[in-house]
Amino acid sequence: MGTCHIHGEFDNASSICRNDFEYIKIIGRGALGRVWRVTHKKTQMQFAIKEFDKDNISSKESLNSIMNERSLLSIMNHPFIININFAFQDKKKLYLGLDLKLGGDLRFHMTNHKFSEPEIKFLIFCLLQSLEYIHSRHILHKDIKPENIVYDSRGYAFLTDFGTSTISKAENFSETSGTPGYMAPEVICRQNHSFVSDYFALGVIIFENIMGTRPYVGKNRKDIRDAILEYQAKILPTAIPNGWSQESVNICNKLIKRKPNTRLGANGINEIKTHPWFQDIDEEKLRNFEIKAPFVPADGDNFDHNHVNNHLDKIIKKRDKRSKNDFLGYFFIPSVATK
User: Fold this and answer.
1) Which domains can be identified in the chain, with CATH numbers?
2) Which residues are in the AGC-kinase C-terminal domain (predicted)?
3) pTM (2 decimals)?
């Protein structure tokens, strides 16, 4: 590990390797690897690098997720998503170079801060910029949740983690990856689904911040599915907490509609963007990052040190055989790292 590519050894890579970067600290951790804050030694530009240990990629599903994210990111670039900058590999690991945002993810802040209505409204409108773009590229995110929403130091929010994302198609009832608590009913019930499924997760996030719990809860996917089938969750006018408006509850209830054809956004994302809740947000100024965000993360480390520094579990009972051919094509020509 650390040796630069030999041309053609793993894919059609040119020369880029781990030694080109100074590793500063771990800032995140997932099931398959860690996220590092790094500096490119030659340009002094900073990035986030997701490292995946090949020996920990235990199943074909995990491999497909990693390769899928790399593939989809290569056809996207937008100010409100976490973009790819480069990707490479060596004998032991895969490396995915991403935009660096140091404000922490929404889940971290939800455990340490009670969000106000203006703060959540701003966050959701940022996410609408992300979704409008990825949907225009015919991509469904399929795993919108607080862990996959990252802040920058100014308080703007960005969508990340496209491992379970897919290209939209008419017949997709078998594609049911995601996080059950944020999963649209049509997805968890294995029905065909479209862009409006992503909007359901926005409603769940609003609901969670208003009420302190998700609209449908359970110990597992089956419990959540059964709850969805049993009743239509909604916030009653008499249950609105202090500090939250009728408009916030109205948009929330419309986004968590169980039937996708009645859900806000079924007729296009402008249906959501023009909701009265957002009437005080200047979209053009937001797109130009000219609005002062109502929530700005504190300086310093915006992540859980215990979580990111825990050792990854190396004990995997059953592992599919991996070969170097599984990772062909992972390399992505970097924007700056080979300059």
Assistant:
1) 18-101+308-325 (3.30.200.20), 106-287 (1.10.510.10)
2) 279-339
3) 0.90
